[in-house]
Design brief:
about 140 residues, mainly alpha, 5 helices
Length: about 140
């Protein structure tokens, strides 16, 4: 939602597109890793219902940091608050008892990598500029 609002305010729809790609890619990769790494969830009294997937790694941390990286590249003055928000979301998964700290740390690293791939790799492939342009460059 934040990506869409920023894209509309700044008149740069590529921001929303790249954020959606980062979110989807982060979700896809983290779900794939959860499926193949059989780590049990913490044995605590969780504050929320326990997901039925494995614990490693945190999908919330992955997608939060992936989106923060893309949006932070688009609007650098928001980078610190965006990363702080992503860190709070990630830590909340430990707080509510459904992840270990290493799960969210690994998810955050994967999210950062995903966001960097999307912000640096995809625009080059498409010929778009995230900060300066409104979309793909002509010719």
């Amino acid at each position: 939602m934040l990506a869409l609002v920023l894209a509309l305010i700044l008149g740069r729809p590529v921001i929303a597109v790249l954020t959606a790609v980062a979110d989807g890619l982060g979700e896809l990769v983290s779900a794939g890793l959860q499926a193949v790494i059989p780590r049990s969830r913490p044995h605590l009294d969780p504050l929320v219902s326990v997901p039925h997937t494995h614990s490693f790694l945190s999908g919330h941390a992955t997608t939060g940091f992936a989106c923060a990286t893309v949006l932070g590249a688009a609007v650098p003055r928001l980078r610190t608050p965006l990363y702080l928000l992503a860190a709070l979301v990630a830590w909340s998964r430990v707080y509510v008892g459904v992840h270990y700290p290493s799960d969210v740390f690994a998810g955050a690293l994967l999210g950062l990598a995903t966001g960097l791939i999307v912000t640096r790799g995809l625009p080059r492939l498409a010929g778009a500029r995230l900060r300066r342009g409104r979309g793909p460059r002509a010719g």
